[in-house]
Amino acid sequence: MRGIRDGHGLHLMGSILAAADRGARIENNILAFEPSDLRGQLRRGKEANLIVFVVDASGSMSARDRLSAVTGAVQSLLVDAYQRRDKVTVISVRGTQPELILPPTGSIDIAMKRLADVRTGGRTPLGEGLLMAQELVDRELRREPGRRPLLVVLSDGRATSSSGLAGVQQAANAIALRGVMTSVVIDCESGRTRLGLAVSLAQQLGGTCLQLTELNAESVVSSIQVF
């Protein structure tokens, strides 16, 4: 099955075929997706989702762009998720430690207030942010075991905290071994020289890496499992 638009989850092969039909090219082992390429599967059941954003808020302008895309995506998801009782949560990765800036909520008002004034800059404790995401999911599943968790990481894969890339790999492997959530890494790496760290992170998580041609709320929403 090639997958369908607005389907359930991420139908990877269907998305790749749609991109190929459009004429997308592979450069540096990365296929550049557009939002219109993404396909899902036919929905089965009405499980509620728990969507966990881990967003790299280190740096300046690029970090603000990532947060803006996440804020718009959260608003869009919650508008559409009322009947499914979906919840969204956001972890900011910056400074010395990650910060839970939006605890799991289904309230648009709460989400918009919490996301209105988030600081950026500093180091990138990515590994610590991934561990926080796993701990949060474990807590939520103990309360509501029927929820379907999805981890969405917006990052270039760099880590500049004390634990470094080794900490990222350790956290990612722990998440993959735990095996309770689907993972999507949205590659935010820019510039001509590409290190491919986001691709490696997705592989370590046992998930999918997407490089979006345009990072905005629409493209983020189109990339994740919400239907």
TrEMBL record:
UniProt cross-references to InterPro entries, sorted A to Z: BchD/ChlD_VWA, Mg-chelatase_DI-like, VWF_A, vWFA_dom_sf
UniProt xrefs under PROSITE patterns: VWFA
Domain VWFA: 50-185
Pfam families: VWA_2 (PF13519)
Family listed: Belongs to the Mg-chelatase subunits D/I family.
Protein name per the record: Mg-chelatase subunit ChlD
Organism (species): Corynebacterium epidermidicanis
